[in-house]
Amino acid sequence: MTYRFGTLALLLLLGLVADTPSGAVAAVHPSVIPSRARGGEVYREALRRNGQRPAAAEGAQPQPRDPREPPTNYYEQRVDHADAAAGTFRQRWWVERSFWDRDAGPAVLYVNGEGPASPSPGGFVRRFGFFVGAIIFSLEHRYYGESLPAPLTNRSMLKHLTVENALADLRAFKRYAEEAVVGKKLKWLVVGGSYAGALSAWARATYPEDFHAAWSSSGVVNAIFDYSAFDGHLLDVLPSACAATVRAVFDAFSEAYDDPQRRGPMMQTFGTPGYFTKADMAWMLADGSAMAVQYGFKDMLCAWMEPVQGRELFKRYADLIRLLWGDDFTRACYYSSECLSNAAYSDQWNSSYAWAYQCCSQLAYWQVGYPGSLRLREITTSYFIDQCRAAFGEEVFPDTYAFNAVHGGAHPTATRVVATQGSDDPWLPAGVTHTLSAEYPEVTAQCNGCGHCGDLGSFDESEPPSLTAQRLLVANYLSAWLGN
Description:
The protein is α/β, with parallel strands linked by helices.
């Protein structure tokens, strides 16, 4: 049986159903919010809408299991798929079978990215699984959450944290699940968002015999070394007055940091440690507003900041980014070269450290400034290279040209992959930005507030209809390919 959802999607795409008023906020899926930003209202609201509990903080005591959630399982995964002698580690996974059609249902593998995983993907992934009678697996990425091949302080073991090993993890787990869990061959759909969305597309391209189709939500398949287009997209979607106010915050920060009398009070306002350099803090401040746009809170950012001038700029901006991302955001180790390179701060490394290594060794995605951009001139590729060398050694460097030559960059060679984007998302230029073929369609949700991985989240009556239309088109493509 094939499920059809195309009529409403077509009406929406033709403009016969009105879009939501300006200011509507698109859905956010909690799994794609980075760990450093999971202490604020955006993450809490995403959990509420998605019907999930927070993923356990890294290093914390395990939470008592909610009886509504599937139990935790562990798979003995190879540390290095090219070297069996490297041993194994325990990789965390979950399975949900409550609506599985054992006779005809497919398998859905939800790929978690750069953070601790949750037992169920929730959101539209779970709803789609219900539509097609799927069994749903969720797999935690190596080096995140509890799935650690070695302590992060063992720098020599980080060499096993590669995209290639992560992809091989997916195939090995899929084969294990067919043999030990379901007992037969199934059609597998691999799903993920952001970096995990890229993994989903790459898994389909790399292992087409194992994965029948892929849903790549805001998948950043193009590893970009000098990602100036990130700020370029922000300037394209932000109202000019709002962009000017955000830039005024950064300029005022620069002046205050350069003044020894004002630096301390300014850093105290933000709650930022004294070991943050000017470039570290400039990056953190830039990320605070960029993620507001990325996750659909552009209008809130502008309404909060535009009327403010003078000394209140710092306090208002600090209050905003703490509200959105939590009190720990402004001191997150991820932004500090000293914190990432000094083992004395290893209790703060966690996902930030592992993701920094992935960017330093393979992916880059370095969001740099340029004349007239939002972020300050201190944020350059040289800054990131120096940070990588300090944290991981001189030999670690992301050859994005070689990486994209293998994996396809903005044009992956694959079929039965649906790529989705949000029109406001500054990560859009790192993904598939147009339909590559009849079997690699790209669907963009076009609206004010349509951001990163919105299609993965739960439906909400207040969401833009263009996002609903996007989900329906995704469901059409996938159900046709799965052919239940």
